[in-house]
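Tutorial, part two.
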Amino acid sequence: MEYTNMMELNFLSKSQNESFARTVVAAFAAQLDPTIEEIADIKTAVSEAVTNCIIHGYENKIGIITIKAFISGNKITIEVIDEGKGIEDIEKAMQPLFTTRLEEERAGMGFTVMQTFMDELEVESTPGKGTLVRMTKYIGSDK
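Running the prediction step on this input gives:
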């Protein structure tokens, strides 16, 4: 991947770090001069990805979440990575309303939210090894 700037952030999978992570990514994205709506989209998608790591990847145990962000032209690509339990069936997990946490009244909309607010979404996962969520947002009208 070619890029003109990049950042990497590692933090513990604690819920209080979710807002920190989205703020850091939003600050990094600011160099592209996004609209308020574009920044809100990025922050929402990052929040969902980080929350998925905390709740599903590490199942509320402490692990490391890594965020990498890359800028190329008018595009920001964000990777949210955990080394948690992984996803057995990515296609099923990405279906709206699918949740493995019925007892916790989870909405099952995390991936749907990410897809809605970002222009591209890719998920790579290996059960027992972890998950990588790659999201891309084009800033401005040109994709």
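Residues 54 and 125 are 15 Å apart (CA to CA). In part three we will examine how such features are distributed along the chain.
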